[in-house]
Amino acid sequence: MSKPCLLLVDDEERILRSLAMLFRAHYDVVATTDGVEALKVVRSRPVHVVVSDQRMPAITGVDLLRQIRDHSPRTMRILLTGYADLAAVEASVNDGEIFRFLEKPWDALKLQDAVAQAADIAHAEFAEPIRVAPPPEAIVAARVLVLDEDPSTAMLVRGLLPPSCAITIATTVEAALARLGEAEHAVILAELKHGSDDVIGALKLLKQANPHTLAIACSSLRDGRLLIDLINQGQVFRFLPKPLGRELLRRALTAALDRHAQLAHDPQRARRHAVEAPREVSLPSRVMDYFRRIRENARQKAAS
């Protein structure tokens, strides 16, 4: 079997040499300092994984990964940067839909594990035929859960979605998980607040329990470290700042509902939302019971 193709992009030759040495034994490595050249590579051959720096002279890593996603959606995308500024982290979620956000100086084993997992996912996807888009009715009949103490959030969501979409409202994590255990929801919109470790932990565990549910996090917090954890350990689909903008929320909900319909139509695509094992999450045992119920419901649906 041929080696998976790994594209490395960084404007520093020294970094590229180090990365290439790390991966050359197991991958067909293509390395470049030029974002334009990287796009040419993706257009000319199948690329399983791309690892890109964020800060480069001609193009940011987020912009590059977004363009690669548009041209080759099966290519798995990893952002590797020494400058984890909040704007880049948010853009990596909302624009690049990256698989992992990793920082320099990198942990070699962690980086190798992330690339290996991404390569396995991409290899399986490249081997499968492209499926037709799901029918529109799969999107308009979905359920959306809003986890927020502010009632105006649910009102805004209700006004943006068609009447055929069912809106479930919860003000606590336990209530939200109970609803998720009763019926599958396409999307959860959850607010993150100071001291909301239970919400953050729940979002991380939810993706493990049911990767088909897309999470949109919203918050007035400006915490890049928190968002990186939610990318890597929770595969959060979008992050929106509060107060919520109507158009941004509409686009996020539309994209999430569309992705959920794609996952329902082609369940194997859920591999792309695999997460790192979260660091220890402390939740009451009764709350953990909900995750077991959600996981079991997801298994039963997959088997049906």
Question: Mind sketching the topology for me?
Answer:
Blueprint: E1 5-9, H1 13-23, E2 28-32, H2 35-44, E3 49-52, H3 61-71, E4 76-81, H4 86-94, E5 100-103, H5 108-126, H6 137-140, E6 143-147, H7 151-160, E7 166-170, H8 173-182, E8 187-191, H9 197-209, E9 214-219, H10 224-234, E10 238-241, H11 246-265, H12 285-303
Parallel strand pairs: 1-2, 1-3, 3-4, 4-5, 6-7, 6-8, 8-9, 9-10
Index terms:
304 residues; alpha/beta; Rossmann fold; 2 domains; five-stranded parallel β-sheet; 12 helices; 48% helix; Response regulator; Bact_response_regulator; CheY-like_superfamily
What features would you describe in this structure?
The protein has 304 residues and is of the alpha/beta class. The protein has two domains: 122 residues, Response regulator (Rossmann fold, 3-Layer(aba) Sandwich); 167 residues, Rossmann fold. 48% of the residues lie in helices and 16% in strands. It contains twelve helices and ten strands. The strands form two sheets. A five-stranded parallel sheet has the order 2-1-3-4-5, sandwiched between helices. The chain has a five-stranded parallel sheet with strand order 7-6-8-9-10, with helices on both faces. α7 links the parallel β6 and β7. It is globular, with a radius of gyration of 19 Å. The mean pLDDT is 89.
